[in-house]
Amino acid sequence: MDQSQVAWVLAAALLAGATGAAAAAPALDTARIERLTGARGQLDAASGVFKVSVPRDELAVQAPGARLTPALGLTSWAAFQPMESGALVMGDLVLTAPQVTPVMDAALDAGLAVTALHDHFLAESPPLRFMHVEGMGDPDVLAKGVGRVFATLRRTAAAKLEAPGEPIDPARTTLDPKKIDGILGRTGTLQSGVYKVVIGRETRMHGTTVGGAMGVNTWAAFAGSDDRAVVDGDFAMLEGELQGVLKALRAGGIEVVAIHQHMTGEEPRILFLHYWGIGPTRSLARGLRTALERTATPAP
């Protein structure tokens, strides 16, 4: 058998395996998915993927030089793909800023993973955020979870951000850094009214170890008083740590602002999460400590 025959046999075997795997996955009950998600869908017959969509046609979004419409990327969706063990779902949610936290909470409470939170446009008004979710398992459970997310999206469509009281001015910071140190188990630095704690991690890029000094770090910046402070910062995490960190931060009343990458080609892969919170200093520090405990961050 020459090389061309060998290649043909291998290709045929791979095709047969793929066909067999597809045949082994039961077809999705599309009518049931529509009922459980509360959204209309469309089946891609070739792949067996069923995609439900919620156009954000109630939004009047203006970008520099153009008016944005659902067809230009303002449609929330979830795609279901059949598997032998159930189904895989992946989705993208179009959100205004006030919707981010309630929709994230709905997704996490429903057992879905939140995998990204970022921008798709520049300088649009009102500002939009895009949240990516995924899940795997029983199609009914996944569809119910997506339904809860879509229901939250609809319920909060008119939500507005409310200013949480008097703005915190770092120039008037009076908080006690030792209370933060005692909870986080780390010592930071106070500069210009902001107390910052930095916790380095390591990965490898291009055959070289890179760490905290190169930006591979988790950090927290506090300002305000012991009774009412603001904290913002960044979490550096392994992929498998993301969901635990998300849940810990939200349980601690800390909001998630972005989930994305800062590098390419690193090993192990590092994800970054930006966060923001206002509350008593001790409560914020405890929320961060719980999130740190969900990671393999080196002990102090």
What would you say this structure looks like, in words?
The protein is of the alpha+beta class and 300 residues long. 29% of the residues lie in helices and 34% in strands. It is built from seven helices and 16 strands. It has helices at 3-24, 30-37, 100-109, 139-155, 177-184, 242-251, 281-292; strands spanning 41-44, 49-55, 61-63, 66-68, 75-83, 86-96, 113-118, 128-137, 189-191, 194-200, 203-205, 208-210, 217-224, 229-238, 255-260, 270-279. A six-stranded antiparallel β-sheet has the order 1-2-5-6-8-7. Strand 5 (75-83) and strand 6 (86-96) form a beta hairpin. Helix 2 packs parallel to helix 4, helix 3 (100-109) runs antiparallel to helix 4 (139-155) and helix 5 (177-184) runs parallel beside helix 7 (281-292). Residues 1-16 and 18-22 have low confidence and may be disordered.
Which bin fits the share of residues in helices?
25-40%
Radius of gyration: 23 Å
Task: Report the sheet with the most strands, covering strand number, pairing sense and barrel closure.
Answer: 6 strands, antiparallel
Number of strands: 16
Order of helices and strands: HHEEEEEEHEEHHEEEEEEHEEH
**Helix/strand/pairing category:** alpha+beta
> Beta-strand percentage?
25-35%
Query: Globular, elongated, flat, extended or rod-shaped: what is the shape?
Result: globular
Give the integer mean of the pLDDT values.
92
